[in-house]
Design brief:
The strands form 3 sheets. A 4-stranded antiparallel beta sheet has the order 8-9-7-10. It has a 3-stranded antiparallel beta sheet with strand order 1-2-3, with helices on one face. The chain is an alpha+beta fold and 336 residues long. Among the domains are: 122 residues, HU Protein, Chain A, CATH 4.10.520.10; 76 residues, 2-Layer Sandwich (Alpha-Beta Plaits). The longest helix is centred in the middle third of the chain and has 23 residues. 43% of the residues lie in helices and 18% in strands. About 9% of the residues have low confidence.
Length: 336
């Protein structure tokens, strides 16, 4: 298993051992090997390499990796130490935290400058550094239009139905009426309307019927008018002024607090808060004024500093690796 890891670490920037952790190749101030125990998912790189080298299926290769991980954990639990030749050493402290130290003569010392430049150019943005999945651009599909053949529809004309002599007469009479224009019923309706209009004009201009109707309407209207209230009656009324004050509650507008994403550089994870505070006090004495304790998943993390930019956090992580000579990692959290 060690020879597979040595070969892969020469060709890749990250090698994940499923259910254990990941080796990350850093190119700041020379090529260094870092270890991150949070990246422990199976990305398929190691399993695929074992399948191609030994000619076995993925299930058998996964079994070999599980045996190797169990071997590492047994050695750390028993002796607190495990070495991978050419890569580095693992140690486990009393709190159960696993530390990694790169071997002095690692497999990366023989890498050329061209390989370093090529690996740096392969990292394009923050998503590559954090191994975030970014959806690829949609691919335009070419649609080929197929012309469908035109099917001519056959119109079936029903056979002519023979009509009787009476029906023929009715049809002829209707056609004659249409030719003449007005039907007898329409002419009768027009005559009736004209007679009604003439009778109404006679009543309006030559009789007193309309005037009598107006007088009777005015008489009924005067009877139904309301009595007039004088000023004396108004003065006799007791009027009580009522002041009504409407209270309108203005809506309280609460400021919207935006979500901020910070990237913390962690140097220690402890079960006891006192141990974490002691570590932070030690860091402050060394000159790291922004050191703080960060509660996270029932543990207390010792943070050296935090940054809003992931690139800046990764750059400082590698600088602190040389300054503190201790393993560290970047933890990204969204705060409000």
């Amino acid at each position: 298993m060690e020879k597979y890891l040595l070969k892969l670490i020469k060709e890749n920037n990250r090698i994940i051992i499923p259910n254990f952790g990941a080796f990350i190749v850093s190119n700041e101030k020379g090529r260094n090997i870092l270890f991150n125990n949070f990246l422990s998912f199976n990305d398929g790189l190691l399993i695929s390499h074992i399948c191609s080298e030994e000619g076995i299926d993925s299930a058998a290769a996964a079994g070999k990796v599980e045996v190797y991980v169990a071997k590492i954990n047994d050695a750390l639990n028993k002796d607190g130490f495990f070495e991978i030749a050419g890569i580095g050493n693992f140690t486990k402290d009393e709190s159960g935290f696993i530390r990694f130290e790169q071997a002095r003569s690692s497999v990366l010392e023989g890498s050329s400058e061209e390989e370093k430049v090529a690996e740096l150019e392969s990292i394009e943005d923050d998503n590559d550094l954090l191994d975030l999945d970014v959806p690829s651009e949609p691919v335009e599909e070419k649609v080929t239009l197929v012309e469908e053949p035109v099917v001519e529809e056959k119109v079936i004309i029903p056979p002519a139905v023979s009509t009787s002599e009476n029906e023929k007469k009715v049809i002829v009479e209707r056609m004659a009426e249409k030719k003449n224009g007005w039907s007898p019923a329409a002419i009768a309706a027009v005559i009736i309307i004209l007679l009604l209009l003439a009778f109404g004009a006679y009543l309006l201009f030559f009789t007193d019927v309309v005037d009598n109707m107006k007088e009777s309407y005015n008489a009924r209207k005067s009877k139904t008018e309301q009595p007039v209230i004088t000023d004396t009656a108004i003065d006799s009324l007791d009027v009580t002024e009522v002041n009504v004050t409407e209270t309108i509650d203005e809506p309280v507008i609460e400021p919207v607090v935006p979500s901020v994403r910070q990237h913390y550089i962690i140097v220690g994870s402890y079960k006891s808060e006192q141990v974490a505070l002691s570590k932070v006090k030690e860091l402050v004495e060394q000159g790291y004024k922004d050191a703080s304790v960060l509660p996270y998943n029932d543990r207390f993390l010792a943070s050296v500093e935090s940054h809003s930019s992931v690139r800046e956090a990764l750059r400082r992580q590698e600088e602190l690796l040389s300054e503190l000579r201790a393993e560290n990692w970047v933890l990204s959290l969204s705060l409000k």
